[in-house]
């Protein structure tokens, strides 16, 4: 049997009733009555609370855990010192919101505490000026090192000799892919600590008294070079030094990370055409890694330099900076024994693009790397090294395309805007040459100084070593002959007596 129900219009519904126990819904308590009772209860609790507080109003915090997370260094007790009104703080994902009559005073304190724990940087202040030493521009000095223990003393001498204010220079070293028995890292620790303690010059002097001259080119090889060059090396670090010579630097960081570089450090190993593409891409990885980890928002300039420079003016940063180029390099040469011509352009990676170079690139595979200065890649470009005049104006500057990595000064904004040292083939180049190409492509000015020269240490090739060994044997035989002649003379004199 089915029982019907009536709808709101009083009509009988055809919906079935499945249970004979169906009962109408009980009448609910009116909402107004509930609100009335709630107001009575809240009012009673508020009255009791005001009586018990005796006039002392405390600050209430909502979501205190979130408050502590977002503002760890806020002094709660300092905020609670105000008792001239109710001060309630609402904390949500957007920060702290204050309600009450003293909002302006409390907000000021919160701002002061917040600003004491947060650093703000206006990157327009770090654009880099041509007068950075006066304008207070911070420099980031980046030096990659691999099996570099023998040249570290020379490198640190040049670092101390920098006349740019040491307090405005941060130094970052990257030690990578060294041999198992190499002590570059350990020596770097010792010398860096002495540098920052201001007693490195005394330490180096003590080491020289035990080990002899710590210059880059050995005494044996110097003996075959132009006497004028030998004199320059001898006088390079003679006192008096500039007033900040022993002053510590703003900071020194040392990074240790390997990148899988297995190519040897010998002159022939590093300069063989077959390994250049691989080697330079790995160097690009290392340079990019060091830049990313060491560059700070307050740096205006980045100065890349190699450890094995033998002669370099202490004013080199100011000398390069004054041109206000985005990227700028000096000319880099190296000394040679007199039997090889006394000197030679060292860094051929600084060049001006040519039509032949562009045509060569068009005919190569996308991943092929042009290695400048090798017969296998005839680009016929103008090299910075080959337009040098020893008596030329050191302030003459020319626009460049590729740059070498021995000594590069660049504005920090160049790196911030995405220019880097490609660890891949970019326009058929890699690392520093591709860095110059990329900077030019992105609209930055890249320049070089053909008549401003820094000198790399002399690294003899296998052929050089053989020739020097032959000359040394000849000298020895001549000296032995002189000794024999001297002994014969002594005997004759004795016979006469």
UniProtKB/TrEMBL annotation:
The chain crosses the membrane at residues 34-52. GO terms for molecular function: alpha-1,6-mannosyltransferase activity. The keyword Ribonucleoprotein does not apply. Residues 478-497 have a biased composition (Basic and acidic residues). One of its GO terms (cellular component) is mannan polymerase complex. SUPFAM superfamilies: Nucleotide-diphospho-sugar transferases. Keywords: Membrane, Transmembrane, Transmembrane helix. Residues 470-497 are annotated as: Disordered. Signal peptide: none annotated. The keyword Transmembrane applies. Belongs to the ANP1/MMN9/VAN1 family. This is Mannan polymerase I complex VAN1 subunit. The lineage of its organism: Eukaryota, Fungi, Dikarya, Ascomycota, Saccharomycotina.
């Amino acid at each position: 049997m089915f029982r019907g129900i009536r709808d709101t219009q009083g009509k009988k519904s055809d919906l079935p009733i499945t249970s004979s126990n169906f009962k109408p819904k009980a009448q609910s308590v009116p909402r107004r009555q509930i609100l009335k009772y709630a107001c009575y209860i809240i009012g009673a609790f508020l009255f009791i609370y005001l009586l018990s507080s005796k006039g002392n109003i405390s600050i209430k915090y909502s979501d205190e855990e979130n408050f502590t997370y977002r503002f760890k260094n806020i002094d709660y007790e300092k905020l609670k010192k105000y008792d001239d009104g109710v001060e309630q703080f609402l904390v949500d994902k957007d920060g702290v919101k204050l309600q009450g009559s003293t909002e302006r005073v409390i907000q000021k304190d919160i701002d002061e505490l917040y600003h004491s724990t947060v650093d703000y940087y206006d990157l327009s202040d770090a654009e880099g000026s041509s007068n950075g030493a006066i304008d207070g521009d911070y420099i980031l000095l980046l030096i990659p090192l691999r099996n570099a223990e023998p040249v570290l003393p020379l490198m640190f001498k040049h670092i101390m000799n920098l006349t740019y204010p040491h307090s405005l220079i941060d130094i970052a070293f990257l030690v990578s892919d060294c041999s198992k028995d190499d002590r570059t890292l350990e020596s770097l620790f010792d010398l860096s600590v002495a540098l920052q303690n201001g007693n490195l010059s005394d330490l180096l002097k003590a080491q020289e008294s035990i080990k002899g001259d710590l210059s880059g080119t050995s005494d044996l090889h110097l003996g075959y070079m132009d006497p004028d060059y030998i004199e320059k090396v001898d006088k390079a670090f003679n006192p008096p030094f500039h007033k900040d010579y022993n002053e510590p630097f703003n900071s020194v960081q040392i990074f240790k990370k390997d990148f899988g570089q297995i190519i040897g450090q010998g002159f022939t190993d590093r300069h063989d055409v077959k390994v250049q593409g691989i080697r330079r891409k790995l160097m690009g990885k290392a340079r990019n890694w060091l830049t990313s980890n060491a560059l700070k928002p307050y740096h205006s300039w980045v100065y890349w330099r190699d450890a094995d420079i033998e002669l370099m003016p202490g004013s080199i940063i100011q000398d390069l900076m004054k041109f206000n180029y985005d990227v700028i390099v000096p000319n880099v040469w190296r000394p040679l024994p007199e039997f090889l011509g006394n000197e030679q352009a060292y860094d051929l990676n600084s060049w001006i693009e040519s039509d032949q170079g562009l045509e060569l690139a068009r005919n190569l595979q996308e991943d092929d790397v042009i290695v400048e200065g090798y017969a296998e890649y005839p680009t016929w470009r103008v090299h910075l090294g080959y337009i040098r005049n020893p008596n030329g104006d050191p302030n003459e500057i020319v626009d460049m395309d590729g740059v070498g990595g021995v000594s590069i000064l660049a504005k920090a904004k160049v790196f911030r805007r995405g220019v880097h040292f490609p660890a891949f083939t970019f326009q058929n180049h890699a690392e520093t040459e591709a860095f110059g190409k990329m900077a030019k492509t992105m609209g930055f000015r890249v320049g070089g100084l053909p008549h401003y020269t820094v000198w790399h240490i002399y690294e003899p090739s296998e052929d050089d070593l053989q020739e020097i060994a032959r000359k040394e044997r000849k000298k020895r035989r001549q000296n032995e002959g002189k000794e024999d002649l001297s002994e014969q003379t002594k005997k004759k004199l004795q016979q006469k007596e």
